[in-house]
């Protein structure tokens, strides 16, 4: 069996250097060419090949840098923790794999002025015209789209299973006997939730566009939209809010208008942010897993760095969390 001295002799370096390279000592000041040569010789001589492969993988991933583009403002991230949780997942998985996280950029309208750098790019949210993504990062194989719902099959992607989420939310309300179910959403980025809301309500024969309101993702707009619904000709008996911050604003509006929840109106949110369990009454919501989405995006990039050729698409599931605002019973 080959020894460290055998590897050192073949690679033309000291035994101490071989030992530190194979143990992934990042404080060792040697060139990437020397590191690669030591791993290559170790593999050729059959020196603990499984460990060598693992260390070689760690060494290769440790040389990669990833940029992150968040298609939301700092204020939007503050108001809705969904995107912040995706970013945290990206950061955690990069740290676990030894991948360097470089630039974190934000965009709102056109991506043209942005200049991400690095070996890979993770894009969270946003809507792009053909060719715009290529301007950001020409290599489609190392660009991952997160929470992006156009059919860009040439890119790796990670999505929340919105069909499942809306089925869970509306299925719960329909089972409780509600038919006049309103929808409040945040405009840009909530199209999939509204699409599935429309699909389900039409299938039940109770779709009414007068019960749909859209605005921004803030609790203030949740308050405004619920107030508009309460002032309308047809008052809903339940409401599905496309995010928990919207639901929190809606609950405040119901309180201020003297409407008891859930007796006067049932409310279901989406995300299961930390606050959801502590509002009064506690919020029934659909739990998403945005941190897992961020981790999955980094994992897809790591697989690309290691040679995967075919695009891969991950769908992250959701879970209905029944609390008091719907009037249902938890499983």
Describe the structure.
This protein is an alpha/beta fold and 331 residues long. The protein has three domains: 4-59, 434 Repressor (Amino-terminal Domain) (Orthogonal Bundle), CATH 1.10.260; 65-160 and 290-317, Rossmann fold; 162-288, Rossmann fold (3-Layer(aba) Sandwich). It has helices at 4-11, 15-22, 32-44, 49-62, 74-79, 81-97, 132-136, 162-175, 191-203, 219-231, 244-256, 290-305; strands at 65-70, 100-106, 120-124, 143-146, 156-160, 181-185, 212-214, 238-241, 266-271, 284-287, 313-316, 319-321. Strands 2-1-3-4-5-11 form a six-stranded parallel sheet, covered by helices on one side. Strands 7-6-8-9-10-12 form a six-stranded mixed sheet, sandwiched between helices. Helix 1 packs across helix 3 (32-44), helix 6 (81-97) packs parallel to helix 12 (290-305) and helix 10 crosses helix 11 (244-256). The longest helix is centred in the first third of the chain and has 17 residues, at 81-97. It is elongated. InterPro entries: HTH_LacI, LacI/GalR-like_sensor, Lambda_DNA-bd_dom_sf, Peripla_BP_I. This is LacI family transcriptional regulator.
At a glance:
By secondary structure, the chain is α/β, with parallel strands linked by helices.
What is the number of independent domains?
3
In the CATH scheme, what's the topology name of the largest domain? Rossmann fold
Helical content band: 40-55%
Instruction: State the secondary-structure class.
Output: alpha/beta
Note the main sheet: 6 strands, parallel
Tally of alpha and pi helices: 12
């Amino acid at each position: 069996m080959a020894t460290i001295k055998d590897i050192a002799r073949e690679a033309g370096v000291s035994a101490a250097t071989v030992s530190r390279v194979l143990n992934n000592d990042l404080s060792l000041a040697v060139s990437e060419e020397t590191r690669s040569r030591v791993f290559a010789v170790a593999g050729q001589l059959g020196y603990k090949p499984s460990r060598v492969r693992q260390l070689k993988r760690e060494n290769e991933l440790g040389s990669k840098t990833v940029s992150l583009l968040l298609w939301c403002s700092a204020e939007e991230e503050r108001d809705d923790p969904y995107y912040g949780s995706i970013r945290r997942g990206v950061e955690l998985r990069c740290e676990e794999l030894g991948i360097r996280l470089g630039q974190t950029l934000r965009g709102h309208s056109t991506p043209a002025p942005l200049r991400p750098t690095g070996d890979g790019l993770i894009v969270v949210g946003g809507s792009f015209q053909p060719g715009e993504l290529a301007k950001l990062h020409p290599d489609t194989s190392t660009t991952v789209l997160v929470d992006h719902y156009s059919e860009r099959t040439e890119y790796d992607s990670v999505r929340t299973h919105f069909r499942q989420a809306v089925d869970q939310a509306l299925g719960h309300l329909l089972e409780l006997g509600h038919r006049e179910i309103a929808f409040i959403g945040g405009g840009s980025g909530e199209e999939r939730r509204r699409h599935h809301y429309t699909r389900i309500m039409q299938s039940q024969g109770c779709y009414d566009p007068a019960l749909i309101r859209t605005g921004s993702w803030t609790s203030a707009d949740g308050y405004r939209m619920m107030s508009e619904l309460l002032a309308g000709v047809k008052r809903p008996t339940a409401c599905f809010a496309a995010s928990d911050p919207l639901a929190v604003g809606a609950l405040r509006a119901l309180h201020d208008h003297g409407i008891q929840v859930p007796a006067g109106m049932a409310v279901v949110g989406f995300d299961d942010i930390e606050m959801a369990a502590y509002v009064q009454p506690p919020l029934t919501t659909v739990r998403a897993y945005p941190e897992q989405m961020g981790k999955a995006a980094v994992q897809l990039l790591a697989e690309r760095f290691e040679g995967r050729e075919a695009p891969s698409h991950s769908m992250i599931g959701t879970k209905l969390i029944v609390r008091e605002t719907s009037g249902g019973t938890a499983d």
